[in-house]
Amino acid sequence: MSSGASLIPLVVTILGLGVTAQVLADRLEIPSVLFLILAGIAVGPEGLDIVSLESFGGPGPLSGIVGLSVAIIVFEGAFHLKLSKLRQTPREAFRLVTIGAGITLLGTALAVRFALDASWTLSFLVGSLLVATGPTVVTPILNVVPVRDRVGAALETEGIVNDVMAAIMAVAVFEVLTSTGTGLNLVIESFLTRLGIGVFVGGLSAGVLWYLLAHVDLSPSNAVRNTRLIVLVGAISTYGIADALATEAGIAAVATAGILLGNTDLPYEDEIEAFKGDITLIVLSFVFISLATLLSFDDLLSLGVGGLLVVVVVVVVIRPLAVLLSTFGDRFSFRERLFMSAVGPRGIIPASVATLFALELRGSNPEAATILVGTVFLVILTTVVFEGGFARHIAQALNVLPMRVIIVGGGRVGRGLAERLEDRGENVIIVDNDQQQVEQARNAGFTAHFGDGTDTDVLRSAGVGNAKIVAAATGDDDANLLVAQLTQSKFDVETVLARVNTPGNAEAFEELGVRAISADDSIAQSMDNAIERPALSEWMSELGRAGDVQEIEVTAETLVGTSISDLDGELPDGVLVALVSRDGESQIPEPEWTLQHGDHLTFVGRRDAVHRALEQCHPDLHADTA
């Protein structure tokens, strides 16, 4: 009874500090990891001495608690990794977790070896841990820095996959450090064995959980609660089974299960995500504060100039080199690649695994323990402070924050418009005051904000200050008119559109200077096209699925003075110039038409070809849309 009572203030202290740290982080738009580490140091033996290793009963119990907590965090992050996002950058994401990870591992190991005079095995142990970035630090950054989806998807994928790889690789290298194994052969065998076991157990577990959730009656009165509990217990069981078969295979297992389940059609998916998010915040607070209590400033200071040199090399040389070599091609602009190079903070996996390994090494090899935990935490603190804390400033300096398109109204019309715009690469935000519509939009993969679109505060929170288009697409003409008027009068938005549901109201919209789109007129025009121009109607439908029509201003100096016939020979295959506009007048271009700076061209063709043509005519397209 007394031991149980003594745990109460411990748990209350950690959770209280965790909540405070999360609130401060949200307010300052900084990853909470920094505040959690500082809170842990404050209550640890070097601070108020409230929490220590003995508080948890020693290294064994703490290791079990941390392992289970990390499993929940990894599962939650993997559950949010949608394959629809990953398809935007499949090659680059694959390179980041292969080429990029390899460069980081080797580069960090070399830096530790020569800057700190560590053994090769210890150097590769540190290098394997610092491969990981992780969703616990990357996701909070992306929540406050609205970069393009393809950039966010690549960073999130890198974080989740490398978390798993780093944990397994570190265990394999640690076995070499603490045993008389055969070196490289042991590392490779251990890594592949753990990864294989983890993937197999995770896939099997995901299949069982999907069947239970999709085909078993969970009691209608308590279906939501039962669904959430099954997922939580399933994640914990997946970790336990895989970890019992091979140490750290549980991390790979929960990551595999999370990715598979997150990309299936589960009932109550929104409720599952909300529940997991709350649980993750609790365990994240507990893990970081608990580990930070074991951190000694002496470990950091003992590294001296060598430790600082390792940090500089990792941040300034290795990270940019890994990203730039992994993201070559036309998918990302150079400025986006620089942003990704500057944002690679380390998180939960390096902190937890390094601390637990250091506890095991303190008795047999205290110098190695000091280098391990000191280097890892020094990199974590530095990258979280500078890369996490200044991420928005870095994005603004590099001009990689895309202009937003805000659609007020998440019904069929709003979602249909959002789908078309996102296919063209726009950064779309849906705003709706109906929670069900918001959930449907989110389930469809859109970013959606809950709130009244006629409220200026709601529009501001959705990012109207950085919007180039606002479309009022609700089923209420009064609401659409008010949204359009507010946007025009209070915010500097380039294009404002409003849906008109009742044809008789179109004139009122136009009198107020609002560009109105009548639903009835659009339907009538489409039906007329289907009757009188069936080939054109079918072509337009097919164009909406696989093609694109885009207008762009000619700014490329190399094209000024070029004729349309010459331009046709330079454009990508599958794209045509449909219209050319000058001084507000548009016409079908003649072959001898000579381009001038400021002309507007309308391209028609395959979506990817059209996008390449846009960049060819307007080289600063990414900067202008940021």
From TrEMBL:
- Please give an example of a GO cellular component term from this record: plasma membrane
Q: Which intervals hold domain RCK C-terminal?
A: 537-620
This protein's UniProt keywords: Antiport, Cell membrane, Ion transport, Membrane, NAD, Potassium, Potassium transport, Transmembrane, Transmembrane helix, Transport
Which parts pass through the membrane? 62-81, 93-116, 122-145, 166-188, 194-214, 226-242, 278-297, 303-326, 338-359, 371-391
Bilayer disposition of the protein: Multi-pass membrane protein
Key word Cell wall biogenesis/degradation present: no
Q: Which SUPFAM superfamilies match?
A: NAD(P)-binding Rossmann-fold domains, TrkA C-terminal domain-like
| Subcellular location, record wording | Cell membrane
Cross-referenced InterPro entries: Cation/H_exchanger_TM, K_uptake_TrkA, Na+/solute_symporter_sf, NAD(P)-bd_dom_sf, RCK_C, RCK_C_sf, RCK_N
- Annotated RCK N-terminal domain ranges read 402-523
Presence of the UniProt keyword Transport in the record: yes
Molecular function terms, GO-annotated: antiporter activity; potassium ion transmembrane transporter activity
Q: Which GO terms describe its biological process?
A: proton transmembrane transport
> What role does this protein play?
Part of a potassium transport system.
**Name the UniProt record assigns to this protein:** Sodium/proton antiporter, CPA1 family
Q: Which organism is it from?
A: Halorientalis persicus
